[in-house]
Amino acid sequence: MRARIFAIIILILLVALPLYLYYYFTTQKISSITIHAGSGIAFSVQLSGSFWVDWLPLMDKALFYTKDCIDTCVISPVLPARYMLGLTSTGKANISDTIIVNSGEKIYRSFLFQNDVSFVSIWNINRDDELWLSLIDNAKNKNIWDFSLIGTDIQNRVWVMRQWEKTTQIGILNSERFNFIRNINASISDAKLDESRSILIFDFASSKTLLLPITLIWEREIPTIWNIRTVTIWYNNQWKIRTSTGSFNIQWERLMEDIRFTDAIDIDPQVRIGYIDKNDAVKLSIGNFPPATSVLIRLNRATGESVVLRKWFDIHALFFYKNEPAYLDNSGNIYSIVGD
């Protein structure tokens, strides 16, 4: 019995009394937070605060507020503390912010919800090696030629190359014939498709790399990319390369690194979709994001406003699939980005 009474007294001293004293001495002037989200917008608000005192974990429960509102939301009274603010609305991207509330302070915040995005699975780019090898063996048995495999493109065509006199011929191989595409007048040390299966990459012995889209409209020669995991895109009259260490735009003969995002694509001249990888500590720090947190962001380049679209998932590359924004995950799955 004494132990129970003693425990109740300790609980009062550690929780109830400090909470009462804090409330009494800091809320003589009532604090409030007013949030405006636009006319006719239904949204939910969540405030989660902390005293940052490890030995009073239960007191943080007094700093938790939730409310459903339309247009404007007023939360009052609010205890002085540091709060994480979360706003949600159906069909809209979540909004988060940090608010520090002082005693008696009247805080007003206005937020603009952006349309949420969804990811629609399209297909998986990984192919069965047996298909490739069987086509090459079949060509050899029919005395068509002895080919070297490059890879299968996004249209499920098998690209191969063969030596022809002092040049290298590249083309598409099917079960009946070799469809010649073009000659490359150089000695090739390595050939492959990028991981989006859209760009042919030829490394030359002269330490140069030829980027050749499967559409064969544009091509570019750059310094050799010594990276196996490479995604290369041509869009808006500009080449971009994504490697395992970051993203680069090609300007003349130079690779210009994107210092803000691990990877990014421009939807139009104003809107950019940017991704920061969980292992990219420098860019996470620049963006003021927690360590080891993958983040997908919509950036308005005209106003500088950025909205976090998603967190905690991995993107191997952002690119365009049939002229629509898409991303490639680490398992070879392609997803279109809808609602950007």
Describe the structure.
The protein is mainly beta. It has two domains: 115 residues, Sandwich (Immunoglobulin-like); 219 residues, no CATH class. It has three helices and 27 strands. The termini are far apart.
Kindly report the average pLDDT value.
Answer: 77
Strand order of the largest sheet: 3-2-5-6
- Uncertain stretches: none
Strand content: over 45%
Give the biggest sheet: 4 strands, antiparallel
| Coarse shape | elongated
The tally of strands reads 27
Question: By helix and strand content, what is the structural category?
Answer: mainly beta
Q: Which oligomeric form is depicted?
A: single chain
- Tell me roughly what share of residues is in helical segments: 10-25%
Question: DSSP helix count?
Answer: 3
The number of distinct structural domains comes to 2
* Spatial separation of the terminal alpha carbons: 63 Å
How is the secondary structure organized here?
Layout lengths: L1 H25 L5 E5 L5 E9 L13 E7 L1 E4 L5 E8 L6 E7 L4 E5 L7 E7 L4 H13 L6 E5 L5 E7 L2 E7 L4 E7 L3 E6 L5 E6 L3 E6 L6 E4 L7 E5 L2 E6 L2 E6 L2 E4 L5 E4 L4 E6 L4 H6 L8 E6 L5 E6 L5 E5 L2 E5 L4 E6 L2
Parallel strand pairs: 1-7
Antiparallel strand pairs: 1-4, 2-3, 2-5, 5-6, 8-27, 9-10, 10-11, 11-12, 13-14, 14-15, 15-16, 17-18, 18-19, 19-20, 21-22, 22-23, 23-24, 25-26, 26-27
